[in-house]
Amino acid sequence: MKPMILAGAMLAALCTTAGAQTIKLADVAELSGGGATVGTNWKNGIDLAIEEINAKGGILGRKIEVTHADSQSNPGIARAQVQKALDAEPYVLLGPGYSGSVKVTSPLAAEAGIAQIMGGEAAELTQGGNKYLFRTSFGQQSSMPKVAKYMAEELKAKSVAVVWVNNDFGKGGRDVILKEFAKRGVKVVADLSTEAGQADFAADVSKVKAASPDAVFVYVNEEESARILKELKRQGVTVPLMGETTLVGQKVVELAGEAANGARGHVGLTTDAPVDLVKAFRDKFVKKYNYVPDHNGVKGYLAIYMIKATTEKMGKVDAKAFADTLHGLTIKAASEPGILMDVTFDQNGDIDRQGFLVEIVNGKQVVKEVLPKLN
Description:
The chain contains 13 helices and 15 strands. By secondary structure, it is α/β, with parallel strands linked by helices. α8 (222-234) links the parallel β8 and β9 (241-243). The longest helix is centred in the N-terminal third of the chain and has 20 residues, at 36-55. The termini are far apart.
């Protein structure tokens, strides 16, 4: 009996040791509901990066494990899933992608002292002093000034119509862009609120036409972007259409078809970027999943390489020290190719790196201008 007990104890010890050698991550994303395109791309980017890193021995010799949970694109469900994920004490929390879901989950991660790397772009998310929250893309406070400047100086727009989605993401972007237009003397002749998941944009586009703007700024989620682009084309709106990443993403182009041609946007991430490492990522993603990823796929991929670079900088797996290490950290693509482009994280968890101005031409994103890092 004693040898059996001893053998059992040894086996338990071995299992415990093996478990300790695994870096456990938790992901909560929009895998169903209105944000399924966002969450699925995000998840696939995460899984691709983990597969690559584990194939090369992991991080500091430890393999990575991730659990994925579905927020169903619902902030309440996202909060419950994040609480469940945090109960398992992950090294880092990943997601969600929707700003409204990040808003209600970030206090939980902060209370647990766990870094949260998310996809939300609402300006307010990183302005509240939460030292555990980090972006994978530009926040609205970084991107909207560039959009307004382009519309005023390059498009020569004196008047604009603004169409936005009535959620945390849309309201945040609308508030920032209106201030930026005011600074530049651009008159907002239509300010139109739409709903998440909205199917019919005929009335909204009619109001845009009636306002006769020089240009239209569209700031809604991906699937709604495709619908409004189709309606704008159907009603014969020919003025320049400008937006952000959600207007000119790969999924929007696929859904909108020819109606996407001519749409322009500022994007922090695009798989059409003239950057060799980004092109290589796109090829790997297409080979694994048989479709071209949008910016959310890049975000998920980068989140894992942020974790790798930060952990290697510390030289240890330390969840409590992770956030402090990532603040102020510059990760160079020359030393960590998985980060794709040089990036710096400030004390708010916001990022600074290259950005791009793109236009949809014949169903593809064409980079018109490369915008350098701010600092």
